Known about the structure:
CATH architecture: 3-Layer(aba) Sandwich
Number of strands: 5
CATH topology: Trna Endonuclease, Chain: A, domain 1
Oligomer: single chain
Strand content: 25-35%
Shape: globular
Amino acid sequence: MPTYKVAYLHEQGQDLIIFPVESSFGSQPQSVQSQELIAMERRAHAAGLQGFAVVVWDAGGRMGFMGPPPLHDFLSSIDLQLVMSNLNREVSW
C-alpha cells in the first residue's frame, strides 16, 4: 500500500494537493505521467482531500511539475524546499 506525504495548500482560490514524487517521474512518457496524476487525484479525493492534484519532482536542481495550466505560474514560483516544508497530510491506498 503506497503512502504519500502531500502538501495540501490553498492558493489562488484553489485547493492544491501536491505530491512529491521520485525524480524518475520526469523521464516517463507524458501519457504515463498523466495517468499517474489522475490516479493520485482520485485517491486524494477518496481520502477526503478536495482540489487539484499536482506532482513535483527534482529535475536536476530545479523543480519539475505537472498540474493544471492555470497554476503553472504559481508552480514555477515555488521550489521543492517550500513543498517539503509544507507536507501536512498523508494519502494511502
